[in-house]
């Protein structure tokens, strides 16, 4: 939010007098008390201030809001009065509606906020005076100042009103090469984006981008407007593509994300280009275009490496692993996931570590390597327990439990297939206490021997690298 300096205004006569008696009397005062106060004021003025004009007496009797309106009319600012009066009516209507919905609603009425009324009077009248002289740039500046002043969660609808007024006036400014019009499109894009109307927001951001191409214009904070236009478009296109992917409109999502990638390259910002490549790769994955997804994600990984952005590189490895999993290339997927685990451990990204460990556990569990699956699931579970993330902890606990059950199933099957007294004793002992059952190395069952042989020669034979001490299997 832009912070405006305090107004140094010369107030009209009525407003200056009324300002001296603030804060105003609340509207809920009983009528009998108001009549008594009026009589007291009349008596006080008659005794102490003989010779006061009717206007001066009115300044003390009327509310500050009413005096602002009277001053506007008396000074000839009829358009300002009409606009302010409409805003005040909407303000009261919104207050009443909010009051009905919320028991803890605390917004004050406008007449109890004289600073806001002062800003209305000061900037609206200046804008109207400039509009009479067709100084449209000055009109824009005054209306934009009001939009900045009301840029807060409570008064955002007032800000949006002045954004719309700025957009109308910006069309009339012809002396700045279109800079004000570009800014107005940016404000309107933000207005629609916050309201969830993404298509309308994209239209305004596209106009903003087109008007700033080849320009070195900057905003009040020194940021290049064309770069802001690119960022705004990328953000809106991504939100649009998310909705399209939810509706399985894959071609439209890919088309709009390709457009986003082109805009990112045009903006000559590697970070934006990196982000655009990531979401485009995910869209190709969702559409089942695996080879294209791998190529785009490889570009994303290369940019992340050039930027020395390990966190984004970890995301690239995760997405690539998902593509390889979809293609059935489990060995390659495991390699990428282990790289992701290494980065997550290095950067203390616990949630990334949990996701990668869970994916590795799923792969090993699906292929029947339950010892490895249990190891990875346990590390995921231990990490979520440290985070006290209850929903995620419950999820990883289920995965870990299933893998442990599969692991025990292999051992029990081996004992059953062995069919000797030692194996029978182990099974009976386990049935009595139901504790964890450890594999007996003396058992030579065919299934166990076969599984061990497969484990040694399979594509998953690579041992996992070391994990943090606090994430090792507890004994």
From TrEMBL:
| One GO CC term on file | cytoplasm
GO terms, biological process: cilium movement; cilium organization
Q: Please give the SUPFAM superfamilies that the UniProt record associates with this protein.
A: TPR-like
Q: Where are the TPR repeats?
A: 354-387
Listed Basic and acidic residues bias regions? 462-475
Broad class of where this protein is predominantly found: cytoplasm
| Residue spans of biased composition, Polar residues class | 447-459
Entry's localization field: Cytoplasm
Alphabetically ordered keywords of this record = Cytoplasm, Repeat, TPR repeat
Highest taxon listed in the record's lineage: Eukaryota
The annotated region (Disordered) lies at 438-475
Looking up InterPro entries in the UniProt record yields: Bac_ResReg_Asp_Phosphatase (IPR051476), TPR-like_helical_dom_sf (IPR011990), TPR_rpt (IPR019734)
What job does this protein perform? Answer: Axonemal protein which is implicated in axonemal and/or peri-axonemal structure assembly and regulates flagellum assembly and beating and therefore sperm motility.
UniProt-recorded name of the protein = Tetratricopeptide repeat protein 29
Say which species the protein is native to. Phocoena sinus (Vaquita)
């Amino acid at each position: 939010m832009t912070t405006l300096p305090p107004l140094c205004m010369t107030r009209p006569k009525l407003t200056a007098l009324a300002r001296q008696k603030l804060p105003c009397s609340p509207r809920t005062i009983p009528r009998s008390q108001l009549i008594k106060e009026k009589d007291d004021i009349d008596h006080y003025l008659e005794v102490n201030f003989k010779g006061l004009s009717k206007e001066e007496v009115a300044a003390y009797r009327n509310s500050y809001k009413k005096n602002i309106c009277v001053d506007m009319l008396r000074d000839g600012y009829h358009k300002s009065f009409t606009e302010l009066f409409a805003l005040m009516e909407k303000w009261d209507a919104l207050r009443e509606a909010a009051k009905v919905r919320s028991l803890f609603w605390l917004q004050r009425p406008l007449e109890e906020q004289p600073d806001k009324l002062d800003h209305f009077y000061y900037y609206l009248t200046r804008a109207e005076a400039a509009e009479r002289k067709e100084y449209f740039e000055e009109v824009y500046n005054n209306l934009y100042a009001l939009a900045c002043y009301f840029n807060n969660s409570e008064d955002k609808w007032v800000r949006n009103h002045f954004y719309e007024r700025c957009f109308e006036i910006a069309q009339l400014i012809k002396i700045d090469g279109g800079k004000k019009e570009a800014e107005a499109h940016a404000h309107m894009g933000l207005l629609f984006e916050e309201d969830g109307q993404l298509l309308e927001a994209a239209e305004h951001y596209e106009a903003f981008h087109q008007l700033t191409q080849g320009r070195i214009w900057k905003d009040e904070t020194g940021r290049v407007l064309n770069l802001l236009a690119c960022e705004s478009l990328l953000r809106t296109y991504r939100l649009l593509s998310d909705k399209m992917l939810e509706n399985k409109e894959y071609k439209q999502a890919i088309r709009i994300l390709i457009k986003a990638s082109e805009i990112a390259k045009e903006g000559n910002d590697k970070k934006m280009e990196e982000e655009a490549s990531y979401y485009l790769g995910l869209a190709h994955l969702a559409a089942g275009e695996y080879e294209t997804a791998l190529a785009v994600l490889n570009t994303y990984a290369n940019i992340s490496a050039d930027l020395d952005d390990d966190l984004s590189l970890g995301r690239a490895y995760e997405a690539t692993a998902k593509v390889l999993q979809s293609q059935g290339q489990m060995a390659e997927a495991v390699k990428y996931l282990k790289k992701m685990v290494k980065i997550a451990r290095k950067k203390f990204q616990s949630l990334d570590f949990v996701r990668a460990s869970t994916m590795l556990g799923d792969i090993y569990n699906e292929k029947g390597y339950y010892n490895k699956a249990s190891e990875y699931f346990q590390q995921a579970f231990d990490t979520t327990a440290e985070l006290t993330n209850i929903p995620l902890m419950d999820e990883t606990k289920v995965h870990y439990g299933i893998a442990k059950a599969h692991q025990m199933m292999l051992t029990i099957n081996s004992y059953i297939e062995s069919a000797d007294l030692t194996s029978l004793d182990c099974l009976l002992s386990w049935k009595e206490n139901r504790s964890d059952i450890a594999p007996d190395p003396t058992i030579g069952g065919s299934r166990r021997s076969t599984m061990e042989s497969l484990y040694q020669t399979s594509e998953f034979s690579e041992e996992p690298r070391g994990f943090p001490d606090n994430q090792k299997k507890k004994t």
